[in-house]
Design a protein that fits this description.
four-stranded parallel sheet, about 30% helix
């Protein structure tokens, strides 16, 4: 007979418990002698940060999964994900890795899976150059740190960015993505 999945959660939600039970999973434990008696931990971001940090030194075993991981926002926030992918590309180039190979147009052969992206306001001048090279493009403006489509809009004129920057309070970080991966 196969082992049953042991789950724990720091969020008491009926939908979680009923789905875990429907799957035949059993409740595990995070306390006492059997503190590591779980395979799946549905936890908040706060719990993840408090358990998995340098001070505790706690590491998952091979049969344990959690629904978040420390620094998850480095991949789930689009602006940070793009920054990390660009850093990865640079590291591969410095190492001379074949994964960093480019074609005759300067595009990555193996790592060309994200569209041209700019971080505003820092990359504004570079963005304007690219915008003028591709005047028929429609660009996607996405505020950093927002979720579920909040604040996303399309632009096809530079004046729309200027209007947006006047209408916004403060100076939020925004990434702008072209509509084509291959101009």
């Amino acid at each position: 007979m196969a082992c049953k999945v042991k789950w724990v959660s720091d969020i008491d939600r009926t939908v979680l418990v009923s789905n875990f039970e429907r799957l035949g999973w059993v409740r595990g434990s995070t306390e006492g002698r059997e503190g590591d008696e779980w395979n799946f931990y549905w936890c908040t971001v706060y719990t993840t940060r408090s358990i998995f940090n340098l001070e505790t030194g706690y590491r998952l075993t091979d049969d344990q999964l959690i629904c978040h991981f420390p620094n998850h926002y480095e991949l789930t926030r689009k602006d940070l994900m793009v920054r990390n992918i660009k850093r990865y590309r640079r590291d591969l180039e410095h190492e001379g890795s074949p994964l960093a190979e480019r074609d005759e147009h300067g595009r990555y052969i193996h790592l060309d899976f994200i569209p041209v992206t700019f971080m505003l306001p820092a990359d504004y001048n570079i963005f304007v150059e690219e915008f003028r090279r591709n005047p028929s493009y429609t660009w996607i403006m996405k505020p950093a740190g927002k979720a579920q489509g909040v604040g996303i809009f399309l632009i096809n004129k530079l004046s729309q960015i200027k209007k947006w920057s006047k209408d916004t309070k403060g100076n939020p970080l925004v990434h702008v993505t072209g509509n084509s991966m291959h101009p």
